[in-house]
Amino acid sequence: RESSPLTLQVKNKAPAEVQITAEQLLREAKERELELLPPPPQQKITDVEELNDYKLRKRKTFEDNIRKNRTVISNWIKYAQWEESLKEIQRARSIYERALDVDYRNVTLWLKYAEMEMKNRQVNHARNIWDRAITTLPRVNQFWYKYTYMEEMLGNVAGSRQVFERWMEWQPEEQAWHSYINFELRYKEVDRARTIYERYILFTLLVIVHPDVKNWIKYARFEEKHSYFAHARKVYERAVEFFGEEHMDEHLYVAFAKFEENQKEFERVRVIYKYALDRIPKQEAQNLFKNYTIFEKKFGDRRGIEDIIVSKRRFQYEEEVKANPHNYDAWFDYLRLVESDTDAETVREVYERAIANVPPIQEKRHWKRYIYLWINYALYEELEAKASQRTRQVYQACIELIPHKKFTFAKIWLLYAQFEIRQKNLPLARRALGTSIGKCPKNKLFKGYIELELQLREFDRCRKLYEKFLEFAPENCTSWIKFAELETILGDIDRARAIYELAIGQPRLDMPEVLWKSYIDFEIEQEEYEKTRNLYRRLLQRTQHVKVWISFAQFELSAGREESLSRCRQIYEEANKAMRNCEEKEERVMLLESWRSFEEEFGTDTTKERIDKLMPEKIKKRRKLQAEDGSDAGWEEYYDYIFPEDTANQPNLKLLAMAKLWKKQQQESEAAETDPDKDIDESQS
After folding, report:
1. Residue 622 sits in which domain range?
2. Are 282 and 315 a contacting pair, CB within 8 Å?
3. Residue 595: which of 620, 561, 618, 568 has the closest Cα?
4. What is the mean pLDDT of residues 202-227?
5. Please, are residues 364 and 402 in contact by the beta-carbon 8 Å criterion?
6. CB neighbours of 462 closer than 8 A, spacing ≥ 6?
7. What is the reported pLDDT for 553?
8. Nearest CA to 590 among 618, 619, 565, 615?
9. Is 478 helix (H, G, I), strand (E, B) or coil?
10. Over 90: is that where the pLDDT of 144 sits?
11. Which residue in 132, 182, 246, 438 is a FRET match for 320, CA 20 to 30 A apart?
């Protein structure tokens, strides 16, 4: 069957080598749009008929564009400007009116319309357009500015003022008021400008349109500029009264102070700065403080400058304690500052604020810094303010605040008692210390109370207090010693000896060696040598410490009798025998050295030779070390002592001597091998 000749047959149905995408087609079409077309040929109009024909074509083009999209205002403006270029003002005016019917809210359209009328000196038409514009869109400030400027350029000052008045009825923004004021000032109408300022401030007060400090400052500077200083001061005072203490602004006070400074009213300036600094939050008064510092440096004395520095430091401390009320170091610095330069009421106020920050945790370590706030407060009231009753109240309040069941501070009780004594009120002082011992007994409280009674020479009270003290802390050797010393001073030796006996009989003591030494020294002072020897024997039954033996020997030596040397030597003999089994060989060496010193001073040649034979030999040894985890940590060298009289060490001494002899022989044989000629010469000789 033959195919029809109209049918197209594709011979090669394979894809082309170069593929063209839809994106590429669109991109090429866009690029070709930008290609420059040849400009149209210039057309020269030679007669009226050609001109009318040209106008007809152009108008048809503009009308078509407007008909296609009526909302594009630029088409209307181009159309009107083209008609204006042909001096067809009436046609241009008609186009603008048609455009305003389409979009009367378009600001550019009104501006172009009015500018066309002004450009062609159609003043009344321009006024009409501006009136319509400000009536239709009264919140567009540009219309008002242009209208007033046109009237002023035409010399119609009254008309311009009338426009401004109409504008002010709409309560415009701040710049509009200032434009009106500047307009009046250009024509030297100061009173009118003041009236406008008053109206502006009135709006600020009643309508709260612009409650801003700078408006008041501008008004005051206006008065100052025209030399109405009393009016300017009154404006500043009204501004301060209007803003009050709730909305204080540092800029107002800085401007007020600078005004007074220009008037040479330095005291008024200082009062203004201080008033503002006392009431404005410190973080918002940096500029105010800076200007105050500059003023004091220029016109103030040394005292004024110091006040400024103190104020700055107070601000810093206020910030610190506000950030962390429990930062007691900051409170101390703050209080030290206010104590040096302020009145008592201010200092008390700061102290009350400081002590109100009680530590949140009832642990003594958190209270140690805090309690010094109370102490400093009480000392200030007593020493600086001279208020004894307030001092007593501070101490009592502090004592009530401390949780005595968990911990207490003996310093507070003692300071309170000492204060009452200075006030010659001994019963209250005793009552305070007695309460402290009853509520929370402490060693320091007992010692302070006893010291007080000793100063008052109330020895019976001291005895009772010592008894209570020792019932509370029987292991306190210092208390036993002090009690015994008190009885010794009072001449009651038997009571003192009985106290010592009770003390050494206690099952637990914190410093028994001090107690025994004090008891022994007591007996020596009483020249009771036999009792002293008995004490040493009783002590040696409890401990075999080398210092006890040496002290015993020196006591016998110092007894001053004929048999003292033999007794002393006998003590050394006993000590040496007792310490043969002592593990601490250094203590035995110490004993022998003390014995040798004794023999060198008091002994004979025989005794000296004997003690020399008892002295040990010092040798160096090595021992294996182990780490904490049990691993090998190497070797360590140390010194050991070998005593000749220890029979257990005799074989070791013999072995050591044989080792030394063998080492000597080895050294001699090595020397002979290194020098054979010397051996030959020796053999020949």
Report:
1. 618-643
2. yes
3. 568
4. 70
5. no
6. 450, 453, 454, 486
7. 75
8. 615
9. helix
10. yes
11. 246
